[in-house]
Amino acid sequence: MREDRPIRTAARTASESRTAAIARKRAGVASIAMPDAHFYTAATDTSDWIAAGVTIVVALVIAHIVDRTIARRGGRMRELVGAGDISPATQTRLRVIRRLVYALIVLIGIAIAASRFDELSSVAKGILASSAVLGLVVGFAARQTLANAIAGILLAITQPIRIGDLVTFEEETGEVEDMKLTYTYIRLGDGRRLIVPNERLAQSSVVNHTIAERRVQVEVSVWLPPDADLDKAMELIAGQGEDISVTVAETDKEGVRLSATTWAASPAERGKIAAELRACWLRLLREHALSSTEA
Fold first, then answer.
1. 210 with 183: CB under 8 angstroms?
2. Residues 240 and 279 sit within 8 Å (Cβ to Cβ)
3. Per-residue buried b or exposed e for 221-237, using 16+ beta carbons within 10 Å of the residue's own CB
4. Which of 62, 224, 272, 284 has its CA 20 to 30 A from that of 235?
5. For residues 91 and 162, is the Cβ–Cβ distance under 8 A?
6. Alpha-carbon distance 59 to 82, whole Å?
7. What single DSSP character describes residue 289?
8. Distance from C-alpha of 286 to C-alpha of 24, rounded to nearest angstrom
């Protein structure tokens, strides 16, 4: 028994040595393989970022093509209608539809790009789990923007005002130049732009001078001395056209203000016709020795 004991000890020692050698060999393989695994992960992340970027670019290109296609369809519709432009109602709806479709395509592209990343998927699951709280936070933070966008859609559907209409909003009169999702642009008579949030526009009273018909009334005024021949002055300008109407608009101790009104075929012609009518009246008053000062 004593003679077998050294043999067993030697065998156990040899076995332990072989086990240690195998462990060292495996550790070496693992240490060599780790950089490759890290390189593979980095390469995969880079390809995901490239694919996401390409997806967003493709979405933008598709959105631009669709937007141009809708615009061309509107142009063909204008040609089918005739030489004139399409109705303001159709033009307003067409422009809002173009912007909604463009935004929807871009959002879909961003969502597809985000789905490439597992980390974002995990975040999305967490967001969905707390959607009620997130909805309250986002709704409170972006309340004004969302309200303007919703009001813009409602204005495009109900159309109390349309592109090309002559409107008066808070004592400012001008032509509706553009209607976006959040803001409406009104071109005033002096060339300035009045930019109004759609929510405010939807909640306030707006005077639409062309809601029923496209014709716009044009008014010009002149002041005459108290002792001037009013009948002669009114006759001079009234004889320049069948649709010109002249009245005494105001009197005071310093003079009398006469007002002449006529019609323009569209809001775009209002300024030109008013300038021509005023110049013609002043010229006639000078020719007949009736002094006048522009109001």
1. no
2. no
3. ebbbeeebebeebbebb
4. 272
5. yes
6. 35
7. T
8. 114
Rounded CA separation 205/169 (Å): 7
CA 71 to centroid of chain Cα atoms: 16
Per the CB < 8 A criterion, the answer to whether 260 and 246 are in contact is yes
Residues 6+ apart with CB under 8 A from 54: none
**92 neighbors 163 (Cβ within 8 angstroms):** yes
**Per-residue model confidence as pLDDT tens digits over 220-245:** 888 888 888 888 888 888 877 778 88
Can you say how many angstroms the Cα of residue 131 is from the centroid of all Cα atoms in its chain? 27
What is the residue whose two structure tokens read 């975040």? 123
Which strand ranges, in their side-by-side order, compose the sheet holding 245-252?
245-252, 255-264, 216-224, 293-294
Distance CA 246, CA 255 (A): 17
Distance CA 135, CA 33 (A): 46
CA separation for the pair 200, 177 (Å, rounded): 17
Q: pTM, whole model, 2 decimals?
A: 0.51
CA distance 196 to 261: 30
101: CB partners within 8 A, 6+ apart: 63, 66, 67, 70
pLDDT band (50, 70, 90) for residue 88: low
What six digits make up the tokens of 165? 């209409």
Q: Which two tokens stand for residue 12?
A: 């156990």
Q: Give strand pairing partners of 161.
A: none
